[in-house]
Structures are given as structure tokens and as C-alpha cells.
Amino acid sequence: MMRFLLVMLFVGSGLTLVGQDPQFSQYYQAPLYLNPGFTGITPQQRVVFNHRVQWPNLPQAFSTFAASYDIFVDELRSGFGILATTDRMGSAGWRTTTVGLLYSYKVKLSEKIVFSPGLYFGYGTNGLDRTKLRLGDGLQYERPGQPYSSADFDQFKISQQSYFDFGAGFLFYSRVWWLGASFQHMNEPNLSILNDVSRLPMKTAIHGGVKIPLHGTSMRRSTSSPDYLTPSAIFRMQGPSFSQFDLGVNYHIDPVSVGLWYRGKPWSKTVINSPYQDALVLTLGLYFKNLNIGYSYDFTVSELQTSTGGSHEISVVYEFVSRPARRNVKKKYKLIPCPTFNSKEGFWN
């Protein structure tokens, strides 16, 4: 019985935590993680790094890394990308690592609107880090004569689990607005590390935004410091028990932006019959011609309040062109740039 409780303590809590994907407050700065339809929406090439530390006041904070690279090939009207993520949680070192390939195709619906469907194919591993487990003398769960050891733990056949993953998404966009949806884990991969079945539910994300110039500023007019707003929203749901709504706005005077975002579901009630609130997010950004740097902090407003230490997040996006576009590419097949959270001379104007 003690061995059974020990396994349930480490493994059961781990499976509960991985029942939903890690998330980024700056979801617009993690485009490939959000939706494969964003693949290749760049002048030519893009590299993105994201890092999030959630609840740093806990003994073992949740830590998530993501890195991606994508390129738009105008001759093929297609975007190609690669995305790698790793997520670590808990004192037992539960880690999930994934690597995936992404593809999108660009369809020009009109002179101002582009449709971009995309696909994701990934491979992942997850499980406990055995070097982090304190067994034997470390835990002192003793039976008559001796404590439990790693050999006892081994008989439960706990191991790393590998799996294939599949997702899809689509995006409609113009120079000033975007609307899309993504569907991840469509095959609901098995994450069980006990040679059992524990499916990762499919995640659906619906998102959109718009770019609003202020004080009569025109996005098509050359200006050194336009000011504008970029309100955006996203609704995510995964499995029967998890859903989340984010809404916010960034104010820009290039190259600086500040933003305030809300995360929660005010139309839902918690177990103590209060509105479901999660966090208020403050964002700061620097947006240069080819480089975007963002920082955000989540102020917890749920029942956890400030005891967890909130969450810190950093993002870096670098876009670059390695070669000029071929002159024989037909103009109607050229990409209309999707809105980002900055204004670039010669790109928007």
C-alpha cells in the first residue's frame, strides 16, 4: 500500500499537471506555437525564442522554453518551419519535450486578404527525471527492516513515454487585422508512463486582433513614430475541464509598446462561487526593424493571489532576408504581410 501511494504521489500529480499544455502570455510573440497557419508569415525568415517561468515562489517553478524557425518561399507560396519546446514542472523533474515540423500554404482571396491553412507534425517525449527522485534514505518510507529503494520503484515499470503528435490551423489576415483558429493534438497522443492509456486532449484556440491607428495616423504613410493600438483576444479550451480567455491591448509609439491584458472567465464561477479570475498581465516591448524584444509579468488575481510570485516571460523575435525575391515571381502570388505588433518602414508603409 505504501508503494502504491508513493507512485500515485509522484506520477498522479505529474499526469494532472500535463493534462493541459503550457501557455505563453505573449502568445502573439510565439506564432508557430499558437497556430501553424502563421508559418512563413514574414518577409522571408524568422527566428523566435520564448521563455516562461511560472510561480517562481514555489519550491520548483514551472519553466517552459520554445524556439522556432520559419521561412516563406514565394515561388511555392508556402511557409516551412520547425518548432521545439521543453517544459519542466515539479520537484520530481517531470519534463515534456517536443520537436515538430510545420507547413502552411498561402491563398490570396483578394487584393487585401490572404488565407493561410497550416499543418503540424511532431514527436515528443515525457516522464519523470529519475535523478530527481529521493528514494530510500531520502524519503524514509520504511517497511520492517529497510526503506524502499529504486529497485522497488522499478517494479512499477515507470519509464519515459514517446509519442507522435498532429495538429492543424488556419488564418485569415490583411495588413490591419487577423483571425484564425488552431487544433492541436488532434490524434490525442498517449502520455502514460505506466504502460497504460492517458490521452492528451485536443486543444482548440480561436484568436484574432486588429491594428488601430491613432490621431489620424495612417499605416500607409511614412512616419518616424506612428502611434496605434493593437487589441487582441484568444479563447483556448482543452479537454472537458479546461478553458481560458485572454483579452488585452498594446499601445505603441514605435519602437516602444506597453500593454495590459486580462486572463479569466468572468462568466464562470469557482467552487467558492466567485468569478473565475486568473491574472492581469503587464507587457513591455521594444520593436525595431528586424528585432522584437518583449517582457511580461502576470499578476495573479485568483485565490492563489501573490503567494506564487506570478509569472515572468521573455520573448525575442528576429526577422531577416537572406536573398532578394526572384523577379519572375508573379505579383499576385506575393505575400501580403500579416499584422505584427510593430510598424516597419518599407514593410507596412
- How large is the share of residues in beta strands? over 45%
- Please indicate the count of domains: 1
Query: What is the fold-level CATH name, i.e. the topology?
Result: Porin
**Percent helix range:** under 10%
Low-confidence stretches: 1-18, 136-145, 220-224, 343-349
SSE string, helix = H, strand = E?
HHEEEEEEEEHEEEEEEEEEE
- CATH class equals Mainly Beta
Mean pLDDT across all residues, rounded?
A: 78
CATH homologous superfamily grouping? monomeric porin ompg
Report, as a whole number of angstroms, the end-to-end distance.
Answer: 69 Å
Strand arrangement across the biggest beta sheet: 1-2-3-4-6-9-10-11-13-14-15-16-17-18
Specify the oligomeric state: single chain
How would you summarize the topology of this molecule?
Elements: H1 2-17, H2 31-34, E1 45-54, E2 62-73, E3 78-89, E4 94-105, E5 107-108, E6 114-127, E7 142-143, E8 146-147, H3 150-154, E9 161-173, E10 177-184, E11 203-210, E12 212-213, E13 227-238, E14 242-253, E15 256-269, E16 275-287, E17 291-300, E18 311-320
Antiparallel strand pairs: 1-2, 1-18, 2-3, 3-4, 4-6, 5-6, 6-9, 7-8, 9-10, 10-11, 11-13, 12-13, 13-14, 14-15, 15-16, 16-17, 17-18
In words, what does this structure look like?
The N and C termini lie far apart (about 70 Å). The longest helix has 16 residues, at about 1-15. It is globular, with a radius of gyration of 23 Å. It has a 14-stranded antiparallel barrel. It is built from 3 helices and 18 strands. It is mainly beta and about 350 residues long. The protein has a single domain (about 1-335), classed as monomeric porin ompg (Porin, Beta Barrel). It has helices spanning about 1-15, 30-35, 150-155; strands spanning about 45-55, 60-75, 80-90, 95-105, 105-110, 115-125, 140-145, 145, 160-175, 175-185, 205-210, 210-215, 225-240, 240-255, 255-270, 275-285, 290-300, 310-320.
